[in-house]
């Protein structure tokens, strides 16, 4: 593999990782920007897959309100958006 191809692949991987972040951050802990893995509001010591969805679902299960389930739906939408963005970056459709 030539040097330019390696550079292009590396750039795509870096951009894909950045695509998993959101400037608004996680619900309740906005300084954590990564939507795929990060701390949960309920566990500061380990990381959680899809922490925004996890925290929103945990809250919705305890509150049982339409608004709290709307927040779960919103968090799922946010994650699906960043996954789609990363997919476009990796396929070369977005640079």
Low-confidence stretches: none
The biggest beta sheet is recorded as:
2 strands, antiparallel
What is the CATH topology?
Answer: Transcription Elongation Factor S-II, Chain A
The CATH architecture: Up-down Bundle
Strand order of the largest sheet: 1-2
Round the mean pLDDT to the nearest integer and report it: 93
Number of individual domains: 1
First-last Cα distance: 21 Å
Secondary-structure element pattern, one letter each: HEEHH
The global form is elongated
Radius of gyration, Cα only, in angstroms?
Answer: 16 Å
CATH superfamily: Transferrin receptor-like, dimerisation domain
In total, the number of strands is 2
CATH class, anyone? Mainly Alpha
Number of helices: 3
Q: Indicate the proportion of strand residues.
A: 5-15%
What structural class is derived from the secondary structure elements? Answer: mainly alpha
**Helix coverage percent:** 55-70%
Properties at a glance:
Putative glutamate carboxypeptidase II, elongated, 3 helices, single chain, Transcription Elongation Factor S-II, Chain A, mainly alpha, 95 residues, 59% helix
Structure notes:
With 95 residues, this protein is mainly α. The chain has one domain: Up-down Bundle (Transcription Elongation Factor S-II, Chain A), CATH 1.20.930. Helices cover 59% and strands 12% of the residues. It has 3 helices and 2 strands; from the N terminus they run H-E-E-H-H. A two-stranded antiparallel ribbon has the order 1-2. Helix 1 (3-19) packs antiparallel against helix 3 (66-91). The radius of gyration is 16 Å and the shape is elongated. The two termini are 21 Å apart. The model has no long low-confidence stretch (mean pLDDT 93). One of its GO terms (biological process) is proteolysis. This is Putative glutamate carboxypeptidase II. One of its GO terms (molecular function) is metal ion binding. Residues 2-90 form the Transferrin receptor-like dimerisation domain. Belongs to the peptidase M28 family. M28B subfamily.
